[in-house]
Every structure is written in C-alpha cells, then in structure tokens.
C-alpha cells in the first residue's frame, strides 16, 4: 500500500476518533475528497518541476503515534530560544506537551487548535478565519485540512500585544520507525495588534519523519506580525510547509525563513494583500550540504494600490545539495503605485551542487515600480585573496565572505536573540568560530 492509499484508508479511522459535531467536520470531508482526486504533487506540475516527493511516498509512515512520549526539558533546551522568556507551544510526536509548554489567556489567546475546535468561546473566530485563506486546490494543504486536529492557536485582540514572543516547537522522538505529522496553525492578529512568533520543527531521531504543516495568518488593519521559521533538522526529516497570509490596510508582515538542514524541505509562502498601504517582507537564508534539498516557492499577490513587497533570499550550496527558488509577484490592474522587489542570490561552493531559480513578475497595472533578479556564482577570489593577505586563514576568510553575503537578510531580524542564534548556526554550518556578531 502506497502512502496515498494508506492516508485515504486511515481517514475513516480518524473520523471515528474525533467529534463529528466539530465545526470543521464538513471541511475535512470535502478536503479528503480533493486529495483523493489530486493525490501527491508530481514533477509533471510546473510548480513542482524540481522537487520530487516520490521517495517519501514509498515509506511506510505511521499516520498516528501509537504511544505518547515524554521528554525532559534539559534534553531539548538547545532547540528552544531559551535566552529570553517566551510563551511556548510544544508538541511531541504531534501530541501537545503541557509539561514543556507555557500558554496564556491573559488578554491574548496562545493555546491549542484542539481547544479552539471544541470550546464555544473560540467558535466565532474559527467560523470567520479557519481555512479561509488556505488553498482549496493545493493537494498537500487539503490533506492537512482533512487530518487537522492539533496545532497552535494564536489570537491577538484589537490593540493588544503579548507580553513576550511565542515559540511553536514540533518534536519527533523516533518512537515510530517512520512518522507523518500534520500540524495546523491559526494566527489571527486584529486591528493595531502585534505579535512575534518563532517556529521550529525538530527531529530527535534518525528515523524518517515527514511533516506536512499548514499555517494561516490574518493581519487586520494596522497589525504588525513578525514570523521566524528556523529549519535545521536531521537528514532523515522532511518538511512541506504551506503558509498563507492575508493582510488588510496598513498592516506589516515579515516572514524570515532560515533553512540549514533536513532531507527535503519545501516552503510554500503565499501573501495576499487585501488592502492599501500594506508592507510584506519575505527573506531567507539557506545553507546546505550533503544531498539536502530546499525549495522556496513564494507568491505575493498585490490586489490593491499603494502597497509594497520585499523579497530577498540568499543561498549557499555545497557538496551534492540542491536549491530551488520559484518566486512570483502578481500585480492586479487596480494595484497602481505598487512597489515590489524580488531578489535571489546564490553561491555554489561545490561543482556538484545545484540551484534552480525562477523569479517571475505578472504585472497588469501601468504605474508601478517592480524589479526582480537572480544571480548564481562562486565566492569572489579577489576578496578572498585580500582577506588572506591580511593574515586571515582561508577557512575563516571564507566564513567572513559568507557572513557578508547573508548580512542584509539578518539585519532585518527584530529579535536580537534570534539573530544571535542564527549567527551561531551559520558559524557551525561553516565550521568556524567567529568572534563578532552581524
């Protein structure tokens, strides 16, 4: 039995285990029919031309963990941003861990999707927002909708801001020979509210893990959202991350994606600008080695005038790694005075590494300022020679150039502790110790 058939047969058991009166029951039923019709995406589709899921479909993944796992904080502390105080929503093998988490309902709601689905006090938010911006056609998104049961629920009311940032951490322990996880996150930030979120998926095992994650983010008028995705997982862990963002007038949403590890990572990041004077930022740093594969697939849809979007992705690829960047900007006819920027720069430090990049613009307005571009190259030999002539060893000189290459992405990080952590990860990936911070 292949993975698609196993999922379809498992859905019947899943339905019997959840409340049929659940407000998303009908959505689940419709979604599984959609997935049954479409199946897993293949390289025959243009959007998946350079990324194949065939190897994952041959693995006998457990759809539901057979037993709960317990972890000690001291064993996983390094995966948290422990340098600052944060709210924490932690899942172990897809199951919420109250012992490792710190949630709140003090003016804001930082809790669980399972609670939001079952408690009447959350029903209005679920009815208004859940599955409203997520794609009804993208097959892995519909698969997640069909099996949605648990994840992070974050609701920030009007004029509110949480007292501290929020961390979402998904851990896989290896109790299963191979495990598939399908977390679902909903983030609603009302008018003039603000939130900072750090998300991480982390496997603690060499067993296969396949995570199919969906996040919906709604930023109302004048809202401000900072979202950081840290991807530095084991070489047996695969992640497909679909994030959908709806913005209203004057809102600002920034998403930074740091991809440093994992077997196969696919990041689908979709921004929909549904108002004027909106600012959207999409930035990322990728450093890969071995046979790792990371695919960044972005969309920014400018549907109203006087808005901005800024995309800047940097990639460093070594050994036999593969990188993909496929970015699209759509500017509707009504969206005059749009300012859209898209850039993808890549460095290959191995003759066997591969990068496929495809920046795209679809512009139907005539009074806009839009630009896009991509570069693929190697380190500047003259700059490297200059640093070495000043007594800096080759390895450290190479690291300095790498840091400089990624700097304009890191400088927009607004949580200093996140920036420090990313600097340390980059230094570790490059195998050097650098006595400064960007």
UniProtKB/TrEMBL annotation:
<dbReference type="Pfam" id="PF19295">
    <property type="entry name" value="SufBD_N"/>
</dbReference>
<feature type="domain" description="SUF system FeS cluster assembly SufBD core">
    <location>
        <begin position="175"/>
        <end position="405"/>
    </location>
</feature>
<comment type="similarity">
    <text>Belongs to the iron-sulfur cluster assembly SufBD family.</text>
</comment>
<feature type="domain" description="SUF system FeS cluster assembly SufBD N-terminal">
    <location>
        <begin position="22"/>
        <end position="168"/>
    </location>
</feature>
<dbReference type="InterPro" id="IPR000825">
    <property type="entry name" value="SUF_FeS_clus_asmbl_SufBD_core"/>
</dbReference>
<protein>
    <submittedName>
        <fullName>Fe-S cluster assembly protein SufD</fullName>
    </submittedName>
</protein>
<dbReference type="InterPro" id="IPR045595">
    <property type="entry name" value="SufBD_N"/>
</dbReference>
<dbReference type="InterPro" id="IPR011542">
    <property type="entry name" value="SUF_FeS_clus_asmbl_SufD"/>
</dbReference>
<dbReference type="InterPro" id="IPR055346">
    <property type="entry name" value="Fe-S_cluster_assembly_SufBD"/>
</dbReference>
<dbReference type="Pfam" id="PF01458">
    <property type="entry name" value="SUFBD_core"/>
</dbReference>
<dbReference type="InterPro" id="IPR037284">
    <property type="entry name" value="SUF_FeS_clus_asmbl_SufBD_sf"/>
</dbReference>
<dbReference type="GO" id="GO:0016226">
    <property type="term" value="P:iron-sulfur cluster assembly"/>
</dbReference>
């Amino acid at each position: 039995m292949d993975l698609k058939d196993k999922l379809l047969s498992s859905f019947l058991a899943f339905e019997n285990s959840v409340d049929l009166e659940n407000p998303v029951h009908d959505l689940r039923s419709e979604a599984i029919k959609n997935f049954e019709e479409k199946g897993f995406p293949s390289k025959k589709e243009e959007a998946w031309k350079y990324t194949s899921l065939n190897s994952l479909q041959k693995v006998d993944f457990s759809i539901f963990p057979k037993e709960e796992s317990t972890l000690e904080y001291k064993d996983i502390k390094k995966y948290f941003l422990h340098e600052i105080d944060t709210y924490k929503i932690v899942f172990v093998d897809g199951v919420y861990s109250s012992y490792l988490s710190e949630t709140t309902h003090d003016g804001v709601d930082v809790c669980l999707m399972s609670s939001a689905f079952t408690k009447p006090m959350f029903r209005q938010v679920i009815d208004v927002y859940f599955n409203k911006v997520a794609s009804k056609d993208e097959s892995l998104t519909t698969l997640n909708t069909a099996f949605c049961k648990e994840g992070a629920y974050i609701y920030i009311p009007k004029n509110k801001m949480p007292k501290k940032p929020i961390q979402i951490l998904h851990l896989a322990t290896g109790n299963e020979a191979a495990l598939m996880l399908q977390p679902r996150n909903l983030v609603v930030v009302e008018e003039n509210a603000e939130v900072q979120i750090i998300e991480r998926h982390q496997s603690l095992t060499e067993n296969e893990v396949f995570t199919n994650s969906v996040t919906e983010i709604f930023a109302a008028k004048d809202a401000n959202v900072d979202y950081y995705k840290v991807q530095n997982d084991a070489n047996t862990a695969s992640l497909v991350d679909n994030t959908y963002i709806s913005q209203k007038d004057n809102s600002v949403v920034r998403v930074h994606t740091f991809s440093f590890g994992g077997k196969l990572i696919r990041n689908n990041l979709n921004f929909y600008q549904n108002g004027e004077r909106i600012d959207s930022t999409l930035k990322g740093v990728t450093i890969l080695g071995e046979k790792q594969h990371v695919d960044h697939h972005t969309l920014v849809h400018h549907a109203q005038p006087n808005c901005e979007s800024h995309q800047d992705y940097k990639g460093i690829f070594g050994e036999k790694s593969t990188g993909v960047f496929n970015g699209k900007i759509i500017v509707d006819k009504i969206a005059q005075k749009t300012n859209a920027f898209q850039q993808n720069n890549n460095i290959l430090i191995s003759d066997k590494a591969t990068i496929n990049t495809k920046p795209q613009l679809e512009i139907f307005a005539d009074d806009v300022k839009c630009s896009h571009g991509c570069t693929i190259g190697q380190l500047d030999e003259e700059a490297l020679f200059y640093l070495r002539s000043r007594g800096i060893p080759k390895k450290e000189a190479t690291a300095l150039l790498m840091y400089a290459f990624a700097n304009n992405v890191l400088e927009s990080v607004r949580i200093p502790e996140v920036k420090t952590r990313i600097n340390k990860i980059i230094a570790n990936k490059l195998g050097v110790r650098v006595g400064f911070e960007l």
